[in-house]
Amino acid sequence: MNKYLIALSIAIFSIGAKAESKVTLVSNATVYTVDSEQPTADAFAYQNGKFIAVGKHADLRNAYPDAMPLDLDGATVVPGIIDAHGHLLGLGQSLMFADLMGTNNKAEIIALLQARAKDLVDGQWLLGRGWDQNDWPVKELPTAADLDAAFPDRPVWLERVDGHANWGNSKAMSFANKDLSGDWQPEGGEIVRNAKGQASGVFVDNAVALIQQQVPAATEAELTEALTLAMQKTASVGLTAMHDAGTSLQVWKLLESLNQQDKLTVRVYAMADGANEMLSYLCDNGASIDPAARLTARAVKLYSDGALGSRGAALLSDYSDDPSNMGLLIESEDTLKKHATRAEACGLQVNIHAIGDRGNRVTLNVLEASNTKDNPGRHRIEHSQIVEATDFKRFKELGLIASVQPTHATSDMYWAEDRVGPQRIQGAYAWQTFIEAGVPLALGSDFPVERAAPLPGFYAAVARQDAKGWPEKGWYADQALTREQALHGFTLGAAYAAFQEDQLGSIEVGKRADFVVLSKDIMQIPVAEILDTKILGTYIDGTAVFQAQP
């Protein structure tokens, strides 16, 4: 692909302020348009940030003889990839904190933390993210004592991979402004305690705030740095847009500033972070709908339950591997209904996190009760992970979108059936069941819970296997998506979930010229080779925001 990379460098160098109106003709490519009327092409042209022609190279060359050529040297092109569920600030902060993803034991974590601590001043909080006890030899929750020997005087506060639990040392717990021992629990959360009733060091869901509120707040400069790092990452992995599942008012203002400075290198569809300041801002000022689709806020993100890995997902009956535990509702059904009704009245899309079958049922009840005729709808259930068999049809009846993350299935498959048992697992990660029920799918990753990379998500969707090809025939392979379904979910399906299908999601005349150049044809190559595919270029409005080095 060196020919393409050299051509791209020349093209970028050639584009100046006066060249914006010049036509660019992209050719010598296998183009998957996600346009049902013209699924493939070998060339397309764009001008002023929009596609103006799609078809055969000979026809387009005759139509635009003076166009600036961009020969892709046989590469594959897909529409701009959209991650329908991610956390932009969280991604950036994960790049600034200790990265614990993929660690296999506590000793490995301690070593990483000790290396990170060398860059900190005395007394500074040591923050990290990504631990998962399910990947350890002994799959038990860690304790403060595991950290205390290495860090007796420095507060250590580590977010679990799913973002629904934190692990701290004794120093971190000492900052809590109330006694953590006893038998009391915060509503919608759990302080994990030992046999003596003392906090062991792990805090689940709403209990996290007991320590988190003592961590010094990041400055605006630090937040901006995190957002910038995150956008560099998203461009490099082929994302042209992402749906930010929980945007605070402070972060929204920073995103607006970056956009005004033309520094927003990924499209952001923001969901207000619960019933907080951002929701009030949108209710007071109205939805912020950008005609250029670069920065939009017209939704709220609410929570019904926790996560499966930390046993906080709310189930209709006990966990199969933890009798007497049914998980947690982060908010009561009545409270959730109140927040959803308020957002509905403000004309906003309501997107609710639900993982367990009880969490999903409560969410369905809430969205059914809060529905108003004046709201544009397209409400979403984020994750839609474990659904009781009779509830799938309710998604369709209520006009809901299932926002799912394929890599959650392949990350969880080693232990998920132990959690929920052989019966409930039939309704877990059940993507084809949703499609058969007529429910639209929007695909994402939930980064930084999973790696920010859509190609592993595409692979997980179609293979239902890990990177080593296990299990051989796929995990509950009947629920795997076809390649066409997976590509649609990461493009037009995600655009639809953000009311942006008229501008984004496919390579069609009149839409914004967002596209991604790939080193391999992911629609035709053996499934195992999908993970070897490289991102060669990421384009937004026809401008490269990332290019691989020759």
UniProtKB/TrEMBL annotation:
Sorted UniProt keywords: Signal
Gene Ontology MF: a single term: hydrolase activity, acting on carbon-nitrogen (but not peptide) bonds
Endpoints of the signal sequence: 1-19
Top-level division of the source organism's lineage: Bacteria
Residue ranges of every copy of the Amidohydrolase domain listed in the record: 71-546
Protein name listed in UniProt: Amidohydrolase 3 domain-containing protein
